[in-house]
Amino acid sequence: MASIKQATVAQLRGMAPASVIHGGVDSVQRALAQLNSKDTPIEKYIYLSQLRGTAKDTFYRLLIDNIIDICPYVYTPTVGAACQLYSTIYRKPDALYLSYNDRGNLAEIMSNWPQHGIRIAVVSDGSRILGLGDLGIGGCQIAVGKLTLYVGGAGIKPDSTLPIILDMGTNNETLLNDPLYLGLRMKRVYDDAFLDEFYAAVRTTFPDCLIQFEDFSSESAFKYLDRYRHKESLIQAPSAPSGQLHTGKCFNDDIQGTGAVILAGFINAVKLASAASGRPILDQRIVFLGAGSAGVGVAMQLVEFFTRNGFTEEEAKQKFYLVDSKGLVTDDRGDNLPAHKRALSRKAGGPQFKTLEEVVEHVRPSALIGLSTVGGAFSEKIVRMMGSFKARPIIFPLSNPSHLSECTFEDAIKWTNGRVIFASGSPFKAVEHGGSTYESNQGNNFLSFPGIGLGCIVAKANEVNDDMVYESALALADSLDDSEINTLLYPRLHRIRDISATIAARVAKAAVRTGAAENSKLGGMADTDLLAYIKSKQYDPTPC
Ligand code: NAD
């Protein structure tokens, strides 16, 4: 336990209890006791937000040392309520607020941010927060929460992080009619020029900053990822000296981070399934319920798994069946399919099915993945069918929060008599069944995005390319220890800082390999040296 430096002791006498000045009860222990005295998750969230703002090192020590217990109060599920209640529980600003009315001046406004040397920004427009829809300016808490996890999970320094909310109005009538609502009181605008100005402002104000897009509605998420991710593309940028700017230095966690984390779990799942059935690992048919940013992002990442293992893209895509609210996604369904769904739609002329049950019955899949936000959509009949097709069916109900999960762990275990290979988006407790205890897996993005971000920072990556994302998934899949390897799909969360460092090292090396790393020192570094270097740089606070 540290005490306040001797030099300042004389000046502080009488200004605080002696135990605080000379080092008495640990501030982290006190913070934990105060946290435990709060009754509800949202009270704990508010308390932790204040602690982060007033005693940063204490807050992060508390988070790092109690990561499993505290995560739910700084991010999902509590952050959902914090976004919904933002204008009611607001006490002080904790993000950069860029409103549509500020267009034309974004770079100037951004330069008001007190910290320099920003290395990572998380930005949302609040248009599709978790499974909760358009929460307008309240979406800023998603950016704040995510960066808190970057600090806690990867050891990125808090002062080099920047949460940003783009306030472009909201279509949420409840918010527009709320007298306390803090955002712009207007219908949401969609304006690519505003996004371009924002993107250019970050790049010119904070040249080393990686931008992570978060919780944009699906179409915007795909559009802006595609627009900004490649280092070769150019956009008009009045704030840049030449009036133009190369893009790159960004990624979208809902699409790429989710893709990586689910691919990691899927790789370990197909190994277990193949060991049980004796069938080849790549012999898979996969049905997805939900074809939004996460559904298509995950499906595309899994397609890459098959193409990197010898299949052509067409052959790989044939393994996938996407189902959305209108049924099986096909080229000839008769509606206007958005481009991201078209990438994986089934060819014209095949059967048209309206329900998941019909699709599962017809396809007889080896894996069923839910990213639909429809709680309970994997019914008993569907899960039992899955159990009848395969010795170990793979079922990933990934929608959040828990009540939107497509099925519970307990039901999946019960309906398959313990044979299911299961991962969910929200955590589920272990289940007792037939005299055995089954531990659940959570395909939590928290296992991957801190490592991806840290790897990009270390490499000074000028883009986050497919090789880097794919490598992050392999690194995560490889990170099971002896106690996890034949039973779990993911490593346990308490090892997150080590896992993030390992992922970061492999992402950084992939950046070097693909010409995306601007840090020339990494090229000749041995893998073990790089890992040790990354660990030595992780923020590891000692509060006084
Ligand atoms: P989204 O809103 O972009 O997509 C939802 C999709 O589900 C849409 O395609 C929609 O058409 C479809 N859908 C809605 N109702 C349906 C119905 N009745 N039947 C079939 N499909 C239906 O959302 P998203 O970003 O893709 O996220 C989806 C879910 O995935 C969320 O609950 C989110 O929390 C979860 N998620 C989990 C993880 C994870 O586990 N690591 C990561 C990201 C997202």
UniProtKB/TrEMBL annotation:
Molecular function per GO: malate dehydrogenase (decarboxylating) (NAD+) activity; metal ion binding; NAD binding
Presence of keyword Transmembrane helix: no
Keyword Oxidoreductase: yes
Database matches in InterPro entries: Aminoacid_DH-like_N_sf (IPR046346), Malic_enzyme_CS (IPR015884), Malic_N_dom (IPR012301), Malic_N_dom_sf (IPR037062), Malic_NAD-bd (IPR012302), Malic_OxRdtase (IPR001891), NAD(P)-bd_dom_sf (IPR036291)
Catalytic residues in the record: Y75 (proton donor), K146 (proton acceptor)
Chain residues that bind (S)-malate: R128, N400, N444
GO biological process, one term: malate metabolic process
Cofactor note: Divalent metal cations. Prefers magnesium or manganese.
Binding site for a divalent metal cation: E214, D215, D254
Cofactors: Mg(2+); Mn(2+)
Cellular component GO terms held in the UniProt record: mitochondrion
Domain of life: Eukaryota
Entry keywords, A to Z: Metal-binding, Oxidoreductase
The Malic enzyme NAD-binding domain, residue ranges: 255-512
Domain Malic enzyme N-terminal, chain residue ranges per copy: 52-229
Matches recorded under PANTHER family: MALIC ENZYME-RELATED, NADP-DEPENDENT MALIC ENZYME
Protein family per UniProt: Belongs to the malic enzymes family.
Protein name: Malic enzyme
Protein source organism: Wallemia ichthyophaga
